[in-house]
Amino acid sequence: MLRISRDKVCYELSSHLEPVAFVEPGETVVLETNDSRTGRLKRAEDVLTSAPQPKNGNPMVNPATGPLFIRGAEPGDTLTVDILDIKLGSQGYLLAKKGVGLLGDTVQETTAWIIPVSEGEARFSNRISLPVRPMIGVIGTAPAGASIPTMYVGDTGGNMDNARITIGTRVFLPVQVPGALLFLGDVHGMMGDGELNGTALEMPAEVRIQVGLIKGQRISLPYLETADLMITTGYGDDFFDAARQAVREMAVRLIDAHSLTWEEAGMLLSAAGDLRICQSYGGQEVTVRLEFPRIRTTGE
Ligand code: CA
Ligand code: CA
Questions:
Q1: Which ligand is nearest to the CA of 279?
Q2: How far is the CA of 73 from the centre of ligand 1 (A)?
Q3: Where do you find CATH 2.60.120.580 in the chain?
Q4: What integer pLDDT is reported at residue 28 of this predicted model?
Q5: N or C: which end of the chain has fewer CB within 10 A?
Q6: Structure confidence by residue, pLDDT tens digits, 188-226
Q7: CATH architecture of the region 224-293
Q8: Whole-prediction pTM value?
Q9: 118 alpha carbon to ligand 2 midpoint, in Å?
C-alpha cells in the first residue's frame, strides 16, 4: 500500500506544487500527517519558540501532506475521499492564546497543555480523561485560481475543521485542476464544534484513505456523506453568509433529488436540517455545515 511520509509537507493548497505521488482511482493510501506546529511543540515550554513563522507569505500552520495527483481527474469532475482509518499519535497539545477564541480576553499568558493519548483516551490530568473523537482538520484539492493557505478555507476545502470528517465519512471535493491535487493534514484527537478556544487537540496521525472519481459531475463546495447524514458546507467572513451558502447547497440537492420547489425544500430544511458551526478562526472566518438525514426512498 502506498504510504506518504509526513516530511512531504506544505502550507497551501496550490496548483503550483509538485505532486508527491500519482494515485489511481480506487487506490488506498496511507498519509502520515503532522500536528498543527509540524512537530515543534513537544513540551509545554516550547509554546512560544514553536509559534509558526511565515514562509513565502503563508504562516506555517496546519500543515498538509501532499499533494496527491489522481490519475484521470479533470476540471469538472468530483473527487471522493473515503476516510477508512485515523491512527492517532501518542500525544497532542491544546493551546490558550491571548485574544484568540471566545475566552481569549481571559488569557494572561499563552499556554500549552500536553495531553498523552492512549487506548482511545485523552488524559488531560490524573482526574480528567475523555474518549478521543479523531477528525481531519485540513482536507482539500488545489484551486484553479489563487492558492489557499492551510490556515484558511476556500471553495476547494482547506482548514474546514469539520468534526464530521472522520472514520467512515466520504468527502466529496471539487476538481478544478488536472489530477485534482489532494491535500490532507491537521488531524485532531478531538475538537468541539466551534473550536471555542481556537485550537483543537492537535496531533500527528496516520490517515488511511481510498480515493475515487466521479467523472463529469461538478460540485462547487466540499460535501460529505456519512451512513446517516448528507452534509453541505459553507464559509465566509460573516456567519450568515456562510450559513446561507450551506443551506442553499442543501436546498439544491433536495430539489434535484426529489423534484421539490424551493418553498418545499425550505420547509423540509426547517423541519429536519441541523445547522452547526465548525470553527471560527480568531472570530474572523467562520466555517459551518448543514446536516440533513439521508432519505431512504420507500416503495415504488
Ligand atoms: Ca485546523
Ligand atoms: Ca488544527
A1: 1
A2: 26
A3: 2-223
A4: 98
A5: C
A6: 999 999 999 889 999 999 999 999 999 999 999 999 999
A7: Roll (3.10)
A8: 0.95
A9: 19
